[in-house]
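Standup notes
- DV: blocked on the single-chain target, sequence here:
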Amino acid sequence: MTLFWIASLPFIAVFIAALAIGRSKSFWLPIAVAVFSLAAGALCLHTIVVAPTCVTGESECLGVTAIAYLIAAFWCAPSIGFGLRRYSHVRFGFRRR
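- DV (later): unblocked, structure below
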């Protein structure tokens, strides 16, 4: 269950930050939320899941490292969407002036 929350909470936070781009008054707040949530998720993934498992044995370390890479790929989807939405928001804002 811990792995579920470690995998899903950064995904949800980046998705909500992407939705808040046009609605927030601050330019940097959604960026900070997205970066902080991904950094906290990666840190928790390493310290809670990967590091303790790699201490026990080689085959378990390979499996959990592969799962960590899959979770990182899972996080790429909202991150790319966040970047594209931020780019279109900035581009539209500069075009309007």
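- Follow-up: The longest helix spans residues 58-96.
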